Amino acid sequence: MENGSRLTDTYCYHIMQGVSISGVGRARPCCVSEPMNIKNFVSPESLKIFSNDNDKGHVCSNLEELINDPVLKKIRANMLLGKRSDECKYCYAREDAGLTSFRQIHNDIHEDKIDKKIKNVRADGFLKTEAISYLDITLGNICNLKCRTCNPWSSHSWLEEAKVIPHINIDSKYSLENYVNSEQWYVHAFKTGFFDDVLPNVKHINFLGGEPLVVEVHYEWLQKIVEKGLSKEIELHYNTNLTTLPRKILEIWKYFKMIHLSLSIDAVGKLAYYVRYPSKWKNIEKNVDKLIVYSTNSKNFSVQTHLTLSVLNIFDIDNVLNWCIEQYNKWHFIDNKSFVHYGYRNMLPHVNIVENPEYMHVRHLPNDVKNIVCKKIDKVCQYISHLGIPDWEINKLNDILNLKSMINLDRNEKSWNKFIENTNASDAFRKLSIKEYINWTNTHI
Question: Where are the domains of the chain?
Answer without folding.
Answer: 1-264
